[in-house]
């Protein structure tokens, strides 16, 4: 056996496949460091477990930090936006500096719409006046707004393609002015006998005599 063949055989035997901690390492005369092995294992785990699907919702426009923000996500027009029991998922968030966050993890790709409201008194429901107009702040994805009623699902709908999606929703207050509640605003208006007085974004039932 010539010297050249002996050298080739020695080189080939040095490159041995070794399975270490679930990662295939090729030994070529040097042993990988623990840091290198950890990086390889981390990369393998990321390949096996891709990031979880998540819809992250930033809510702004809140007039104070009282109570909480309740969020609901719907996959169809059924129940949107008021019937939370028909929502695909619900979430709630505390408020800090007029800002709140709701996350919806683990969702499949598809078309969704989100509704939110500022539950100022923390009673878990959207308070309305006698006409059904919300007395607390409301909002929807796409910042959709209704006309003589709540926004439609189609106006608020968006497509989720997986991975992470970030949305922003601004809350609107349909009743009350300058941070007052609807009742506080109404008390500042005059009353007309046997009629309804509507002034400064506030509608009040007349008391009569």
Topology record:
Layout lengths: L2 H12 E6 L2 E6 L5 H15 L5 E7 L7 E7 L14 E5 L6 E6 L4 E10 L18 E3 L12 H4 L1 E3 L3 E7 L11 H5 L9 E4 L2 E4 L4
Parallel strand pairs: 3-10
Antiparallel strand pairs: 1-2, 3-6, 4-5, 4-7, 7-8, 7-9, 11-12
* Helical residues, percent: 10-25%
- Could you report the average pLDDT, rounded to the nearest whole number? 77
> If you compute it from the alpha carbons, what radius of gyration comes out, rounded to the nearest whole angstrom?
30 Å
- Which overall shape is indicated by the principal axes computed on the Cα atoms? globular
Secondary structure tally, helices:
4
Strand content: 25-35%
Distance between the termini: 122 Å
Q: How would a crystallographer describe the biggest sheet? A: 5 strands, antiparallel
Architecture overview:
With 209 residues, the protein is of the alpha+beta class. 17% of the residues lie in helices and 33% in strands. The strands form four sheets. Strands 4, 5, 7, 8 and 9 form a five-stranded antiparallel β-sheet that branches. A hairpin with a 2-residue loop joins β1 and β2. The longest helix has 15 residues, at 34-48. The chain starts with a helix and ends with a strand.
């Amino acid at each position: 056996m010539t010297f050249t063949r002996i050298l080739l055989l020695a080189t080939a035997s040095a490159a041995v496949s070794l399975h270490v901690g679930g990662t295939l390492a090729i030994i070529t005369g040097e042993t990988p460091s623990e840091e290198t092995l950890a990086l390889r294992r981390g990369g393998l785990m990321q390949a096996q477990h891709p990031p979880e699907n998540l819809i992250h919702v930033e809510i702004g426009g809140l007039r104070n930090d009282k109570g909480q923000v309740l969020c609901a996500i719907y996959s169809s027009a059924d129940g949107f936006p008021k019937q939370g029991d028909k929502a695909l998922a619900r979430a709630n968030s505390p408020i800090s500096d007029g800002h709140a966050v709701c996350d919806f993890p683990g969702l499949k790709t598809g078309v969704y719409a989100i509704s939110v409201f500022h539950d100022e008194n923390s009673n878990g429901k959207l308070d309305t006046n006698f006409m059904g107009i919300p007395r607390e702040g409301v909002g929807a994805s796409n910042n959709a707004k209704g006309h003589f009623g709540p926004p439609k699902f189609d106006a608020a709908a968006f497509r989720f393609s997986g991975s992470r999606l970030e949305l922003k929703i601004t809350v609107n207050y349909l009743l009350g002015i300058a941070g007052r509640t609807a009742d506080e605003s109404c008390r500042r208006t005059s009353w007309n006998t046997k009629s309804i007085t509507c002034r400064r974004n506030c509608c009040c039932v007349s008391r009569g005599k």
